[in-house]
C-alpha cells in the first residue's frame, strides 16, 4: 500500500503544496512556538547559554544547576553566587544532548526503507500467503496504528487533538476517500506486480494536475505537462507489454489513481476547515493519522461484511499461523513508520526534496519487486517501466522549479 507515504494522511504522489501545508502546520504549531519562546527567554536571562535542545527535562536540569540546585554532573558546589568558567563549561558539556549528524540523510533513508518495505510486505501477504481478504488486512493495519498512536499520546510522547464530533463530521468525507484509496491499492497489488503498480500510480499525478487546473486555477509550466504526457505514454506502453497483465488488477489501479487524486485535492481544503474545529486551532500530522485510522475502522468493518470476507476469514488456515500474524503486524508497524519517517524527513528537508526522493525511491522498489517475486517480463516492458520511473523523476524536478 504505497499510498501511505505521508502515512495515513497524504498519499505518495500528493502535490507539493499539500506537503508544504503539512510542513507549515507542523512547524507553526503552538507547542513549537512555545518551545522557541522559552529558548529565547532563557538565553536572554543567561540560563541556557549554549544549550540548544528542545528537551524540557534537560533544559530544566541545566536551569536548576545555575540557580543553586545540584549540578547535573555531580558537582556539589553552590553555583548561586557565581561559578568559574571551567566549571560552567564542564556542566554544559555534560548536559549537552547527543546530536545525530546529517539527520536529513538518515531521515531520508528511514523514509525510503519503510516505504519500500511496506509495499513489498503487502505484496508478500497478498501473493505469497495467497491472502484473499485485502480489506481485512487494511483494517488490521489501521487498528495497529490506532493502538500505537493512542499509546504514544497517552504517555505524552506525541500530542493529538481530542476527537470531537464536530471534527469527525468535517473529516469524515475525506476519510471515505482515504479508505477507498487504501482498499483499491490492496486490490490492485493482489493482481499487478510491484513495478507496474509504481508506474501506473503516475496516472494519479496527471489527474491531480488536471484537478488543480480546473478547481484551484493553478498554472503548470510546459515541463510539468511534458512530464505528465510522458507518464501517460509509459503507463500505456507498460500495460501493453506487461506479460502478467490482469484486467481486474488494472481496473482497480485506475480507480485507485482517481481516488488518490481526489484525496490530494480534497485534503488541503478539509485541513483548513478542520483546524478551526480543534481546541488548539491547529491539526498536526499525528492527529490526522489518528483521525484517518479511527474513522476507517467502522468503514472497514462495513466493507469486510459487504465483500463477504468474514466467511473467508472463518475458513482460512492462515489465521492459525503465528508467522502470518507476525508479518501482518509488521506491515501495520511499517504503515505507521511511514507516517513518522515522512514527517521527520519533511522537517529535515523540504516538500520538494521529499517529492523528488519519493520519485527516485520507486526505482529500487521496482527492481526489488521484479527480483523478489520473480516477475516474468520482457525487454520492452522493462524499458517502459524505466521510462515511467524517469518521467516521475522529471515531473518532481519540474514541480520544484515551477
Automatic annotation (TrEMBL):
<feature type="transmembrane region" description="Helical">
    <location>
        <begin position="379"/>
        <end position="396"/>
    </location>
</feature>
<feature type="transmembrane region" description="Helical">
    <location>
        <begin position="170"/>
        <end position="192"/>
    </location>
</feature>
<feature type="transmembrane region" description="Helical">
    <location>
        <begin position="104"/>
        <end position="125"/>
    </location>
</feature>
<feature type="transmembrane region" description="Helical">
    <location>
        <begin position="247"/>
        <end position="265"/>
    </location>
</feature>
<feature type="transmembrane region" description="Helical">
    <location>
        <begin position="137"/>
        <end position="158"/>
    </location>
</feature>
<feature type="transmembrane region" description="Helical">
    <location>
        <begin position="224"/>
        <end position="241"/>
    </location>
</feature>
<feature type="transmembrane region" description="Helical">
    <location>
        <begin position="323"/>
        <end position="346"/>
    </location>
</feature>
<dbReference type="GO" id="GO:0016020">
    <property type="term" value="C:membrane"/>
</dbReference>
<feature type="transmembrane region" description="Helical">
    <location>
        <begin position="286"/>
        <end position="303"/>
    </location>
</feature>
<dbReference type="InterPro" id="IPR050186">
    <property type="entry name" value="TPT_transporter"/>
</dbReference>
<dbReference type="Pfam" id="PF03151">
    <property type="entry name" value="TPT"/>
</dbReference>
<feature type="domain" description="Sugar phosphate transporter">
    <location>
        <begin position="105"/>
        <end position="394"/>
    </location>
</feature>
<keyword id="KW-1133">Transmembrane helix</keyword>
<keyword id="KW-0812">Transmembrane</keyword>
<feature type="transmembrane region" description="Helical">
    <location>
        <begin position="353"/>
        <end position="373"/>
    </location>
</feature>
<protein>
    <recommendedName>
        <fullName>Sugar phosphate transporter domain-containing protein</fullName>
    </recommendedName>
</protein>
<keyword id="KW-0472">Membrane</keyword>
<dbReference type="InterPro" id="IPR004853">
    <property type="entry name" value="Sugar_P_trans_dom"/>
</dbReference>
Amino acid at each position: 500500500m504505497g499510498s501511505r507515504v505521508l502515512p495515513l494522511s497524504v498519499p505518495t504522489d500528493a502535490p507539493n503544496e499539500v506537503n508544504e501545508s503539512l510542513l507549515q502546520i507542523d512547524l507553526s504549531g503552538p507547542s513549537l512556538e512555545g518551545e522557541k519562546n522559552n529558548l529565547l527567554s532563557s538565553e536572554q536571562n543567561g540560563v541556557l547559554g549554549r544549550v540548544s535542545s528542545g528537551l524540557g527535562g534537560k533544559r530544566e536540569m541545566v536551569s536548576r544547576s545555575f540557580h543553586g540546585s545540584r549540578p547535573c554532573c555531580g558537582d556539589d558546589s553552590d553555583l548561586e553566587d557565581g561559578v568559574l568558567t571551567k566549571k560552567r563549561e564542564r556542566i554544559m558539556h555534560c548536559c549537552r544532548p547527543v546530536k545525530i549528524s546529517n539527520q536529513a540523510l538518515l531521515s531520508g533513508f528511514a523514509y525510503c526503507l519503510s516505504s519500500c518495505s511496506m509495499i513489498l510486505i503487502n505484496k508478500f501477504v497478498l501473493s505469497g500467503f495467497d491472502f484473499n481478504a485485502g480489506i481485512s488486512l487494511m483494517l488490521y493495519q489501521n487498528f495497529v496504528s490506532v493502538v500505537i498512536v493512542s499509546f504514544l499520546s497517552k504517555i505524552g510522547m506525541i500530542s493529538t487533538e481530542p476527537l470531537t464530533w464536530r471534527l469527525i463530521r468535517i473529516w469524515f468525507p475525506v476519510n471515505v476517500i482515504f479508505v477507498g484509496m487504501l482498499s483499491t491499492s490492496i486490490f490492485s497489488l493482489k493482481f499487478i506486480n510491484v513495478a507496474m503498480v509504481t508506474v501506473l500510480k503516475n496516472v494519479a499525478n496527471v489527474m491531480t494536475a488536471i484537478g488543480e487546473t480546473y478547481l484551484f486555477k493553478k498554472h503548470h509550466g510546459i515541463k510539468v505537462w511534458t512530464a505528465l504526457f510522458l507518464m501517460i505514454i509509459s503507463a500505456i506502453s507498460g500495460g501493453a507489454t506487461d506479460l502478467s497483465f490482469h484486467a481486474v488488477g488494472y481496473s482497480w489501479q485506475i480507480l485507485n489513481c482517481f481516488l488518490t487524486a481526489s484525496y490530494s485535492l480534497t485534503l488541503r481544503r478539509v485541513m483548513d476547515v478542520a483546524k478551526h474545529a480543534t481546541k488548539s486551532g491547529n491539526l498536526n500530522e499525528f492527529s490526522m493519522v489518528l483521525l484517518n485510522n479511527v474513522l476507517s475502522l467502522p468503514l472497514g468493518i462495513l466493507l469486510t461484511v459487504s465483500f463477504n470476507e468474514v466467511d473467508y476469514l472463518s475458513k482460512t488456515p492462515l489465521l492459525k499461523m503465528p508467522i502470518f500474524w507476525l508479518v501482518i503486524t509488521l506491515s501495520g508497524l511499517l504503515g505507521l513508520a511511514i507516517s513518522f519517517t515522512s514527517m521527520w524527513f519533511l522537517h529535515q528537508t523540504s516538500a520538494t526534496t521529499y517529492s523528488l526522493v519519493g520519485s527516485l525511491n520507486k526505482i529500487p522498489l521496482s527492481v526489488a519487486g521484479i527480483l523478489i517475486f520473480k516477475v516474468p517480463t520482457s525487454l520492452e516492458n522493462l524499458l517502459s517501466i524505466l521510462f515511467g520511473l524517469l518521467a516521475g523523476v522529471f515531473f518532481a524536478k519540474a514541480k520544484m522549479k515551477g
